[in-house]
Amino acid sequence: MIEVKNVTKSFAGRVVLDNVSVNFEQGKTNLIIGQSGSGKTVLLKSIVGLHDIDSGEILFDEIDFTRMNFADKKEIRKEIGMLFQGGALFDSSNVEENVRFPLDMFTEMSLHEKLDRVNFCLKCVKLENANKLYPSELSGGMKKRVAIARAISLNPKYLLCDEPNSGLDPMTSLVIDSLIKEITEEFNITTIVNTHDMNSVMEIGEKIIFLKEGILAWEGTKKDIFKTDNEAITDFVYSSNLFKKIRKSQNKED
Amino acid sequence: MIKRGLFFHIGKYFLLMKKVFAKPEKHSIYYQQFLKEIENLGVNSLGIVAIISIFMGAVITIQTAYNIENPLLPTYLIGVAARDSILLEFSSTMVALILAGKVGSSIASELGTMRVTEQIDALEIMGVNSAGYLIMPKILAAMVFNPLLTLISMVVGISGGWAIGTLTDVITTQEFILGIRYAFIPYYITYSLIKTVVFAFIMTSIASYYGYYVEGGSLEVGRSSTRAVVYSSVVILLFNLILTKLLLS
Ligand SMILES: Nc1ncnc2c1ncn2[C@@H]1O[C@H](COP(=O)(O)OP(=O)(O)OP(=O)(O)O)[C@@H](O)[C@H]1O
Ligand SMILES: [Mg+2]
After folding, report:
1. Average pLDDT of A35-43?
2. Partners of B244 in the beta sheet?
3. Residue of A9, A15, A18, A38 to mutate, ligand 1, most atoms within 8 A of C-beta
4. Looking at residue B66, what is its pLDDT?
5. Does residue B44 fall inside a structural domain?
6. Residue of chain B nearest A86, judged by CA positions
7. Yes or no, beta carbons of A84 and B122 under 8 Å apart
8. What is the per-residue pLDDT across A86-117, written as a single tens digit (0 to 9) for each?
């Protein structure tokens, strides 16, 4: 479980996260939704310590991460798999080396075992026969999938994904979503996913938090989303016509 | 990053160096990186070092010959003067300044790009000390390989001097050889190599500092790589003065 307690973060006086408190539960896919610029990425990066927060606390399974020194943070971070919004693949390494990197760094596996693991992870993201390609030779969606493979290669205890399916076609997007949900349940991981894709919300959202201009404006499950009267979230959700129709038909049934 | 004072940067630089020289997570991985950097920063600089050395040697020889067109001075002095300027100054400082341009801008832009595309963040999140993993192998590779470049530059430079001297008939081969052996002080080579090692540290660490702390986008990466070259060159010149005072007087 990852607990975020009263976290505030500002850049040059501009508040981007305003007193956010939320628990991300273990074995569940926790979703952070919100408009572009609402602070989703900043929240994710604050959780893992890439941004220093102004005030508040972050706890990883009850261990206070905020006040840890660099060496202890490193130990926790070995358990974190993170997918960056832009992928953040290592340009000078090919696909295989990218996914293998955490294994090289932190395990004593033989090369053969490592390659098996790499190929397994690449298969999970439906990316076979791309082992020797370099990031510059990949499409945007392929990069994203390699980055997911890298994030899960060490069997993380915490998986943080910043928009795992932006830039992917609906089919692949579905595959990635179900992959995230599967490994979360199978390995009892604490997973946090940033998204503004309502399809993902309906596919994998168990616990959902809604950020609006840095404020936690709503919290609930995907069922709750259609029942709530919270204006901020209905505006966000029903900006899609499809969901307007769903809402209408649901209201008729009631 | 730009408008802050000198002491801010010096402090931040030393804190970075402390992180760079922390204990590696895994020695074998760092060693692989080290070998890669030997090739990137060292072997790939052989060509440019050879070219500038041969021209430098040639120009010094012609200039010296022009300056001592006095029948009372023996011709072999051309060899002596060329040798001493190459050993003392050109193969260490000149070569270091050229390399600060080549190696410095490549390090700063490589690290800067990794910073703005979040590759450095990705390393940090994995629990890797990104500064150590990325920077230490570069600094060590340059400190190990640059002395070899300096030695090569000395040999090539003196050969360039001999070639142009004999081709233009300002000096014969015998006189030139007499000159480069005349009153030869081996310590000059040691002095030059000590400077080279210090300059190698300066150019790689300062370039790494500017690359590692880039904020923004590709524009800032370009700016910081320019800044890396300018500041490492200035610091190299400063340390050239300090080391010369310390080692030669
Ligand atoms: N390093 C930074 N320095 C200054 N401001 C920043 C920085 N990073 C983010 N911000 C600001 O914080 C706000 C939230 O940004 P964030 O990246 O979290 O948005 P987001 O919800 O992830 O949006 P998107 O869906 O487009 O990725 C934005 O207004 C942005 O300008
Ligand atoms: Mg974002």
Report:
1. 92
2. none
3. A38
4. 86
5. yes
6. B117
7. yes
8. 889 999 999 999 999 999 999 999 999 999 99
Q: Chain A within 8 Å of B26 (Cβ-Cβ)?
A: yes
Are B26 and A75 a contacting pair at CB < 8 A? Answer: no
Predicted TM-score (pTM) of the model is 0.90
Residue B41 lies in a domain: yes
Contact state of A88 with B122 under an 8 Å Cβ cutoff:
yes
For chains A and B, what is the number of CB pairs under 8 angstroms? 53
pLDDT above 60 (res B47) = yes
B79-118 confidence digits (pLDDT tens): 899 999 999 999 999 999 999 999 999 999 999 999 999 9
Position B4 in a domain: no
Given a cut of 80, whether residue B215 has pLDDT beyond it is yes
On whether any CB of chain B is under 8 Å from the CB of A104, the answer is yes
Domain A23-51+63-221 has CATH 3.20.20.70: no
- Among the partner residues B25, B29, B117, nearest to A88 by beta-carbon distance: B117
Whether A134 contacts chain B with CB within 8 A: no
pLDDT at position A253 over 70: no
Q: What is the mean pLDDT of chain B?
A: 93
CA distances from B189 to B92, B148, B153 (A): 10, 12, 12
Domain that holds residue B44: 26-248
What is the mean pLDDT of the segment spanning A163-184?
87
CB A90 less than 6 A from any atom of ligand 1: no
Residue B18 within any structural domain of the chain? no
Q: Both tokens of residue B229?
A: 């070259």
The number of domains in chain B is 1
Q: Does residue A44 surpass a pLDDT of 60?
A: yes
% of residues, chain B, pLDDT over 90: 80
- Report yes or no: B57 and B157 within 8 Å, Cβ to Cβ: yes
SS (H, E, C) chain A: CEEEEEEEEEECCEEEEEEEEEEECCCCEEEEEECCCCCHHHHHHHHCCCCCCCEEEEEECCEECCCCCHHHHHHHHCCEEEECCCCCCCCCCCHHHHHHHHHHHHCCCCHHHHHHHHHHHHHHCCCCCCCCCCHHHCCHHHHHHHHHHHHHCCCCCEEEEECCCCCCCHHHHHHHHHHHHHHHHHCCCEEEEEECCHHHHHHHCCEEEEEECCEEEEEECHHHHHHCCCHHHHHHHCCCHHHHHHHHHHHHHC
Q: Hey, where are the domains in chain A? A: 23-51+63-221
Share of chain A above pLDDT 90, in %: 56
